[in-house]
Specification:
The chain contains twelve helices and seven strands. The strands form two sheets. Strands 1-2-3-7-6 form a five-stranded parallel sheet, with helices on both faces. A two-stranded antiparallel sheet has the order 4-5. 44% of the residues lie in helices and 10% in strands. By secondary structure, the chain is α/β, with parallel strands linked by helices. The model has no long low-confidence stretch (mean pLDDT 97). The protein binds thiamine diphosphate (TPP) and magnesium ion. Thiamine diphosphate (TPP) binds next to strand 4.
Length: 321
């Protein structure tokens, strides 16, 4: 399945929505307008966007602590997300969950997850439920290079392979697990090398190339949907911002980060150039899209600011632990 120019413009808009949402959140945290612990998805936009473009509303995703991009790409509402980050009652979790607990079950978003490696078992469970019920839904499990070393990830992948569960494991290799580079936390270059150990296909793709991600994900999702079982799809990308907002980033060189921000590396700049070169967009239209996405984010902030705080009487409702 190839992407039409119109679809590519739509996906470019989603990638900008993620970037602008994240940059606004960074500003809000740094000015202490909002609290909480936040991990930004800047630099990885093409992964969530390209993968989720292959899914329907009946498909599921599991996410991570760095989950805003996944939620936006699967169709999440930025107003409700912003309100959640402002801890307001109109937020996705009525203001009680924050950044790492956003879910929207109606959209198949099974939740962000503060537990590294917490997503894979949930994803396999969702995929098995779909298989059991006889629907053709697929579950995509987003997780990081660090999470690929967790026992839960290995167990989930093995079980998914054995039971041919309709799940796609998307390993977002952003080259760091917290403050430890991939080269220091595993002895393989590609996470996909582990696919052979589970007896499933593996593919490596440039995670900053929207079209490449989309094509590889289409194949993996199609395979899962046809009952042929899981795929491990590694998307090589880079985390432009610190591990969390406020990270002093003493473990990597500034030049390394700047290298990934260049026009031939940054996922948004690359797609923008492709769209202009192929005349899918003009520079003027790019400007308009950028302005309208920024306006959307400002409106989300206004919505959150004007929303009420949760009522004291609700202190213990929806709280399970
Ligand atoms: C079970 C568990 N162990 C440790 C942590 C602390 N922790 C939070 S994020 C993180 C690194 C995750 O790295 P990766 O999977 O590569 O995701 P990225 O942050 O790069 O998106 C760790 C160790 C945690 N949240 N959960
Ligand atoms: Mg990582």
């Amino acid at each position: 399945m190839s992407l039409t120019k119109k679809k590519m413009v739509d996906l470019y808009t989603i990638m900008l929505r993620i970037r602008n949402f994240e940059e606004k959140i960074e500003e809000l945290v740094m000015t202490a307008t909002i609290g909480g612990f936040v991990h930004l998805y800047v630099g990885q936009e093409a992964v969530a966007t390209g993968v989720c473009a292959t899914l329907t509303e009946a498909d599921y995703i599991t996410s991570t602590h760095r989950g805003h991009g996944h939620v936006i790409a699967k169709g999440g509402d930025v107003k409700l997300m912003m309100a959640e980050l402002f801890a307001k009652s109109t937020g996705y979790c009525k203001g009680k969950g924050g950044s790492m607990h956003i879910a929207d079950l109606d959209l198949g978003i099974l939740g962000a997850n503060g537990i590294v490696g917490g997503g894979p078992p949930i994803a396999v469970g969702a995929a098995m439920a779909a298989q059991y019920k006889g629907t053709d839904s697929v579950c995509v499990c987003f997780s990081g290079d660090g999470a690929s070393n967790q026992g839960t990830t290995h167990e989930a992948m093995n079980l998914a392979a054995v039971w041919k569960a309709p799940v796609v494991f998307v390993a977002e290799n952003n080259h760091y697990g917290e403050f430890t580079s991939q080269a220091r936390h595993q002895c393989i270059e590609s996470i996909t090398e582990r696919a052979a150990g589970y007896g499933i296909p593996g593919a490596v793709v440039d995670g900053n190339d929207l079209v490449a991600v989309y094509e590889a994900a289409s194949e993996a999702v199609d395979r899962a949907r046809k009952g042929k079982g899981p795929t491990l799809l590694e998307c090589k990308t880079y985390r432009i911002k610190g591990h969390f907002v406020g990270d002093p980033e003493v473990y990597r060189e500034k030049e390394e980060v700047e290298g990934w921000q260049k026009a031939d590396k940054d996922a948004i700049l690359r797609l923008e150039k492709k769209l202009i070169d192929t005349k899918a967009l003009t520079k003027d239209k790019v400007k308009k899209i950028r302005e309208s996405v920024q306006k959307e984010i400002e409106e989300a902030v206004k919505f959150a600011e004007e929303s009420p705080e949760p009522d004291v009487s609700e202190l213990l409702t929806d709280v399970y632990a």
